[in-house]
Amino acid sequence: MAAKRSSRKGTTRPGYINKHGSSVVRSTGLAGTDHGKTVYVLRCPNGHEYRSNGSDIWQRKCPSCQGGRAGLSY
């Protein structure tokens, strides 16, 4: 079953797709730059992977092909 876009609820679940077509791959388990948040790996529709705070997943754009800001390091 294909992942679907949904409300913000569940945006950190693997398979969630944000409004720019990026999907959540996995959690890194590492602390993010936003208080109490974890870094997640996202993959854009073109296959580029980048990292984001869990709180930002719903709005992130790929830094490689969509003009998004640089992803977090881990």
How many domains? The number is 1
Total beta-strand segments: 3
How would you spell out the order of helices and strands?
EEE
Q: Give the uncertain stretches in residue-range form.
A: none
Beta-strand content estimate? 25-35%
Distance between the termini: 30 Å
- Shape assignment: globular
Order of strands across the main sheet: 1-2-3
The count of helical stretches stands at 0
Q: What would you report as the Rg, rounded to the nearest angstrom?
A: 11 Å
Main sheet makeup? 3 strands, antiparallel
Helix content: under 10%
Mean pLDDT equals 89
The computed structural class is: mainly beta
Question: What layout of secondary structure does this protein have?
Answer:
Elements: E1 23-31, E2 38-43, E3 49-53
Describe the structure in your own words.
With 74 residues, the protein is mainly beta. The protein has one domain. Helices cover 0% and strands 27% of the residues. The chain has strands at residues 23-31, 38-43, 49-53. It has a three-stranded antiparallel sheet with strand order 1-2-3, with no helix packed on it. The protein is globular and about 30 Å long. The protein starts with 22 loop residues before the first strand and ends in a 21-residue tail after the last strand. The model has no long low-confidence stretch (mean pLDDT 89).
Features:
globular; single chain; mainly beta; three-stranded antiparallel β-sheet; 74 residues
